[in-house]
Design goal:
Length: 190
């Protein structure tokens, strides 16, 4: 299985999307960086595509702007189609993880992300939480290690785990092969 999607859309880099969102919100890089607990220099390098964030850092940056991760996937205003074609999914790349949103960007009660996770890739080394109520991860290919607070769970193909989004958690692909997983979050707020 190849981690890199066959036809990655041009909007796959998260940095320019973050800058666009920050500018739309009329926030300075310093304001967002302080709120997210990163340096302004780090945010600048990220927005310019020189570095790639962890999923946890990306979530903190988006939250610092008063938005959710779903915002990074949203279509142009006014587009509210129920169908999301695989080839038209918005791709978001972070360190070792390629996410595409299965549900349309306008959906507010349910969010499903398909993640392709490179060997060793994952959320980050730190536990994190995010808005939402419940989250379920389903391993479609490969394997995943999931930490819920201090408990470590090893998930193989077909395994799933469901937990409260406010439970401190982190995850990674421990294998030498890519993994493909689905994240189901309610309400859509990641």
């Amino acid at each position: 299985m190849s981690v890199e999607p066959q036809s990655a859309p041009p909007d796959g880099e998260v940095g320019p999307r973050l800058r666009q969102l920050r500018e739309l919100k009329a926030l300075s890089a310093r304001q967002v960086a302080e709120r997210a607990g990163v340096s302004a220099a780090y945010l600048s390098r990220l927005e310019n595509g020189r570095i790639s964030p962890t999923v946890a850092t990306l979530a903190r940056l988006v939250s610092a702007m008063g938005e959710t991760m779903a915002t990074l996937f949203q279509d142009a205003p006014g587009v509210a189609t129920p169908v999301v074609r695989r080839a038209q999914r918005h791709l978001m790349r972070s360190r070792g993880v390629f996410d595409s949103q299965v549900t349309p960007g306008w959906a507010t009660r349910l969010e499903i992300l398909e993640s392709l996770v490179e060997p060793g890739g994952g959320s980050s080394g730190r536990l994190h939480t995010h808005a939402g109520e419940e989250e379920c991860v389903l391993v479609l290919e490969g394997e995943l290690e999931l930490w819920l607070a201090t408990d470590r769970h090893h998930l193989d193909v077909g395994d799933s785990a469901t937990f409260d989004c406010r439970t401190p958690h982190r995850w990674r692909n421990p294998s030498t092969e890519p993994s493909r997983v689905l994240w189901i979050i309610t309400p859509a707020s990641y």
